[in-house]
Amino acid sequence: MSRIEDAEKDYLSGMKYKDIAEKYGVSLNTVKSWKSRNGWQRDATKKKGAHKKSKRVHTKKSKVAQARSPDVIDELVENDELKDRQKAFCLYYLQRYNATWAYQKAYGADYETARRNGHRLLTNADIKKQLT
Question: CA-CA distance, 14 to 12, in Å (whole number)?
Fold first, then answer.
């Protein structure tokens, strides 16, 4: 048997790189290269090293107020003080609590316009009353 094969048996039996290198009179890096070139692999049950977490894939629950959505929608439909787009703004705002995004969705405006006017809608007394 060659010393590489002997070193492999020692490695598989659980010997450390350092001990194998001393036994065969080679450097530590030589033993490591033998391992990678020849594909030495210890039993998976005896594997040392850090534990790796398995990735979990799941969908996040949306922040839409689903439990109270029928009440909110009924209240919004009955409200005659707000225009249709203002009602849509209220619904979108309750989904993400982001006035800019809600304004873009309700009015179809660009970002800059929505950034300026979304805040203004939140100061409207009727909309403020509806949202509370």
Answer: 5
How many other C-beta atoms lie within 10 A of the C-beta of residue 77?
A: 9
- The tokens for 45 are 């049950």
| pLDDT computed for residue 62 by the predictor | 59
* Structure tokens given for 38: 């020849």
- Summarised one tens digit per residue, pLDDT across range 94-114 is 888 899 999 999 999 999 999
Domain residue ranges in the chain: 3-41, 69-131
Question: Which H/E stretch holds residue 108?
Answer: none
CA separation, residue 91 to residues 68, 80, 87, 122 (Å): 12, 15, 6, 13
Pair 70, 64: CB distance under 8 Å: no
Q: Which helix or strand (DSSP H or E) is residue 107 part of?
A: helix 99-107
CB count, 10 Å around CB of 98? Answer: 14
- Please report, in angstroms and rounded to a whole number, the separation of the first and last CA atoms in the chain: 83
* Residue 107: alpha-carbon gap to chain centroid: 31
